[in-house]
Amino acid sequence: MVTNVRDRTAREPLTRDRVLRTAVSLADRVGVDGLSMRKLAQEFGVVPMALYKHVANKEELLDGMVDVIIGEVDSPIAGADWRTAVRERILSARRALLRHPWASRLLETRSTPTPTVLAYMDEMIGLFRDGGLSLDITHHAMHTMGSRLFGFTQELFNDPPPIAPELEAALYEAMATTYPHVYEIYRSVTHDDASVVGGHGCDDQFEFEFALDLLLDGIEQQV
Amino acid sequence: MVTNVRDRTAREPLTRDRVLRTAVSLADRVGVDGLSMRKLAQEFGVVPMALYKHVANKEELLDGMVDVIIGEVDSPIAGADWRTAVRERILSARRALLRHPWASRLLETRSTPTPTVLAYMDEMIGLFRDGGLSLDITHHAMHTMGSRLFGFTQELFNDPPPIAPELEAALYEAMATTYPHVYEIYRSVTHDDASVVGGHGCDDQFEFEFALDLLLDGIEQQV
DNA sequence: ACCTGAACACCGTTCAAGT
DNA sequence: ACCTGAACACCGTTCAAGT
Fold first, then answer.
1. Is the CB of B215 inside 8 Å of chain A's CB atoms?
2. Where residue B5 falls among pLDDT bands split at 50, 70, 90?
3. In this complex, do B157 and A111 lie within 8 Å of one another by their Cβ atoms?
4. pTM
C-alpha cells in the first residue's frame, strides 16, 4: 500500500492561483534558489508535469510569483499630492518586498513585464502626470527611480553574513589598513547608532528613505 | 585515434588568470546563463575537474569574473574636484559594463564583495572624503548611489525584445487603452527623438547621466 | 481528454581509482 | 602529487504510453 506525502482525500483541485501562492510560500521557506518545479509538485503530492497544466514553464511560474507580490502592494492613496502619493506607494511596495526577502532578486531576473507589472508602472506614471509633471520629466523620473519604484534598491552584498559580532569587529580591524575608508564608515556607524539591528550595521529603512527623498527633491526642482 | 577539441601541442598551462579571462570571453559569447564549468573546461580541452585546481567552485569563478571586469575600470583621475572624479569614474565603470552585457546581472547575484570590489568601493569613498564631505553624508551618498557606483542601474525589463519595428508599434497601439500612461510616454519618445537606437526607444546613456547628475546635485546640496 | 512516469539532456561537485 | 572519469544528486522539460 502506497501512501502519499499529502492526504489525498483533503486534496483540492490545482488551480493556477493555488500553484502561484504555494510557490510563494515555498520560496518564503526555502528561498527562490531552492524552489524547483519538482519540489513544488511534491508540495501538492503531484507529479511535476501536473504543474504544466497551469503554467507553461518555470519562467511563467516566476512571473506569476512576481504578480502575487505586486498584488500585495496597496493602491495609491486618493486625493494626495503627487509626491506623497508616489512616496507612500513606494514605501508600501517596500513593505511587501520585505515580507518576501527573495522577491527583489526575483524581480531583477524578469526579462519581460507581465500585465500586472505594466499596470503597476502605468499607475505610477499616472501619479506623476496627474500631479502636473510634463511627459519628459515624468519619463526621466521613472528612469531615475528605477527599481525604487518597486520599493527596493540594488542590494549589492547586503546579505548579513552569519558571523559572530565580536568576530565581525575583529575582521574590520584587520581591514583597517587595507580599506581605510570603508573602515572609517564602519566605525562611525557602529559607534553612533545604538539602534542598529543586524546586517552590516546600517539602518536600511533610513537609507532607503533618505535616497528616496533626495530623488523626489531633485524631481520636484525640475518642475 | 582520439583528437582533442583544441590542439594539445599549443596548450599553455592553466592558471587562475587564464581560467577567469576565458570565462569572461565565453560569457561574452554565450551569456552568463550559458556559462557552465563543463563548457569552460571544454574550452581548454580539459576535464571539468581540472578547473577546480584554480577555483574552489563556481561561485568563486563568478566572483573572479567580476574582478576581471572591475579591473577594466579606469583609476580615478587625479587633481579633479570630488564631483568630477566620482562622475568620470562611474562613467568609466559604465563603459566597462557595456562591453560585457551580462556583467551587471552577474554583479547583482554576488553575495560577498571580493577584495577587488572592496578596494573599488574604498577608493570611491575616498573621493568623497577627500572632497571634504562628512562621514555621514558620504555614507548616505554611497547608499544613495547604490549600483550606480558600478555604472549600472537596475535594468528591469530593459532587454530589447527581438520584435519587428512595425509589430512593436502595433503592440503599443493595442496597449493604448489598457496602459494609457505607458503608451503616452512611448509615443513621446518615439516621435520626439530621432536619434533613438534600438531597445525600448530610450536613450539609456542620457537617462543614466540625467539620474547621476540629479543624485550628485542632491548630494552637493547636503554639504 | 487527461494524467503519468520514464527518459533526455543537461547541471555542479564528490570521490576513488589511475598514473 | 597530480590528473581523471565515473558516479551522485539534482535540474527543467519532452514524449510516448497508460487510463
1. yes
2. very low
3. yes
4. 0.87
